[in-house]
Amino acid sequence: MAERKAFNFYASFFDVYKQLNTDKDKVAFIEALLEKQFYGIDPKGLTGMALFAYESQKQVINQQVVGWEKKTNTPLTKGVDKGGAEGGCQGGSVQEEEKGEEKEEVEYTIDFKKLLEFINNKTGRGFKKVNEKARTKYKARLKEGYTKEDIFNAIRNAVEVQYHIDNNNQYLTPEFFSRADTLDKYGGEYKNPYSINVGVTID
Question: In whole angstroms, what is the distance from residue 3 CA to residue 15 CA?
Answer without folding.
Answer: 27
